[in-house]
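[audit] Reproducing an earlier prediction to check determinism. Same input, same settings, fresh worker. If the tokens differ from the archived copy the diff job will pick it up downstream; this log only records the rerun itself.
[audit] input (719 residues):
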Amino acid sequence: MIKSRPRLLTAAAALLILSLTFTLLLRFTALHIQYRNSLVSSYASAAGAIKQRIESAGSIGNDMRHPADPEQILLRAKELIQKKTAGENSISVSLAFPDGRIIHSSNSLMRDTRIPEPAVFAETGSTGKPDSQFQTIRSGSSYHVILPLHMRENRKNALIVISFDEKELHSLQTRIMLEETKTLFCIFAIMILAVCCLLIGKMMRHNTVAVKKQILILFLLIGISQILFFTRGIIGYKTYREGVRRNQAEIFALLSKEERDSLPAVSSRSSSFLSETNTKSEKDAVSDSLTALLICLLFSLEMLIFTFCFTEKRDAGPENGPAVPYGFIRPAAFLFFFGMDICISFLPLHTETLYEPLFGLPEQVVTGLPISVKTCCAALSFLIAGIWADRSGWYPPFFCGLFLSAAGLFYARVAPDAFHFILSCGLIGLGYGLYVMAAQSFLIFCTDENSKSQGFACFFAGIYAGSICGGATGAMLAENLGYRPVFFIGALILFSIIPYSLFFMRDAFRTDHRGEVHPSAHQVSLKQFFVFLSDRNVLSIFLFCSIPANMAMMGFIDYFSPVYLNRIGRSQSDIGRILMLYGFCIIFIGPVISRYADASENKKLYAAASGIVGSLGCIIFYFKGGLGIFIIAILLLGISQSFAFFSQNTYVLNLKAGRALGAGKSIAVFRSASRLGQISGPILIGWLIAVSGIQKGIAWFGCIYLFCIVLFLLLSKKE
């Protein structure tokens, strides 16, 4: 337990500074998205007013060259927008052909130029309501808000374009961030005062407070500070949105030639348009803030656990424990998977942007190749890492894995085409395998029989927390910065583990433990490998349970999910948030089901049940698609995967072949061979999508998965 109250105060202050700094950085990312969307929606509302004005007049002909005073309408719109939104002179309002060529503009320099990337709208007619489906295109430092016009025969034969410079957004964000920083300093001062009161008070007066209670107290304080900070941010954003809504209504009414006495009750059409744009913006803002808050709480918890682990080691002294506590691997695992999974929500989407015909393969297959190559290289490096760590200790492959993974992310950042991007993913996979195996070797070296299970539980907790935080943070960053910079940020996070390891884990850099890391009992000969896999039950669960489950994990989660959600129009932040559901299923549902599976005598039933649940998550796409169906599917896959691997491993260990080979050897062989599913999953699902379409393709995969489970039940025999 922690005996020094000054040390506790120092630790609490350091934790508050670190966690709130991270909170501020993440809040800035969320702010950029929120206020950019808010600014865009206000301009989209103005575009909607112009749209209503022109459509109701019906004054633009098919050639779009003879509207009634187009320049006057556009100049009036620009004047009102600048007046009501305090916009800069960089704002321009234009009319363009569907191909992006600008015909009329409030900025004479923009006439006869083109929108950098023409917007594509579905050829559907007007429903009588103003069309709130607008698009935003960014080109360099400029943004273009585009809304289609419905004129003759309900065809979109014109575009309204409102352009503005990025400096407007920066000016708005700078002002808001100054207010947020002041709020953060006030909260920090209050929390430090609260910690001091606790130290002086009865609870901390005696040196008998358990470490867990101290962790809980500090985590509650940090959590409260973050909740207060984000709550203040949401309230401030809603206040800002109220002002924007008022300005939108005024602009809409004035451009529609409605009397000011009717404000704020503008026409029903304008009210409908304003309601749609504002509601979406506010929902996105709340979602982004809650996601950022959850990430910050997980990050703070990880840092809190590390702080107490370090402080406990200092209090206990080196003679009372191992040279390095096994808990020191948890922050390293958290940061590693934070950096690795920072791109998980858009990996296939980025591949699509780089796609060129490759080896005569369909585009859907090529976009799945980076995931497959990454997994294949990871499987190969697992074997290399085992031999290397056995001969030289855990730390050479540990640092080599860090370097290769970070280098692969840098390579992905600059990859000019799909081929180079696939190579970069292979490099990432090589580093991943080396790092993960070396980290587990560290745990074996720094734990004994009484603490080994706790060490691995600590390691995997860091993995899951890092993966959840990394995926969601990467999605928000990608929506803000684009795909390429996120790879660079991931590489920097991985490089940050090197100084951490050199400072906190250096006492474990010893080479006199050869043979302890990978005992000979875990070495498997080629003959033992084939004898084990030739057993009927082992072969059945391997081919018909394990491989399909691994296919579903990599194919559905890593490949299909980002592609499908992107196709149905979800933002990158939404993709990251939705994928978090899968991680939470693994963390919270898995341990509950695993307890029941562990107590049951019929392990085969649980192994089959996991496959049935997972297959249903894919099959439901045959009947219907959409976000609601996808959320149901991701929950079913999460529940399935949460106990799939545990039930499969337990089933194998209870088999005669598993007992004959030995627990360690059986699991090592079984898990290594099962990686074939992870490698082939994205390729198979990509091929099915190319042949049958995105929804039916995943549904057919679900049918194949279910058929494999039926074969497993029929072919495996009772022992």
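[audit] rerun output stored. Observation attached for the diff report: The mean pLDDT is 76.
[audit] end
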